Amino acid sequence: MNANPWALAKDRALRRLLLSLDERAGEHCDIDPADGSDPRIVTLRHPELSRLRAHVYLHGQRPGTYGVFYEFPHPVPGMLETEENLPLPAALDSLALHFDT
User: Fold this and answer.
1) How does residue 77 score in pLDDT terms, banded at 50, 70 and 90?
2) For every residue of the chain, which 3-state class applies, written as one string?
């Protein structure tokens, strides 16, 4: 991953997810340089395929869970675009699969 998760101005829950994701899939995803300043959302991208992205958010989620919106370089019929209220292990599994690790 291209950044230290603990140094980011993000919600603690997102920093925890990023730290766990870095251990598992850090070489396959980076924090998008145009991430923005919302502390409850983080945008991740594949280091070589900049249009393969995922937005992880806490807005509207039950406490302790994550929402993920996926972006693909090309339309992929039948693929999930959004998942809601994922516990940390499920969010990590889903993101690792999205970034193909």
Assistant:
1) confident
2) CCCCHHHCCCCHHHHHHHHHHHHHHCCCCEECCCCCCCCCEEEEECCCCCCCEEEEECCCCCCCEEEEEEECCCCCCCCCCEEEEEEHHHHHHHHHHHCCC
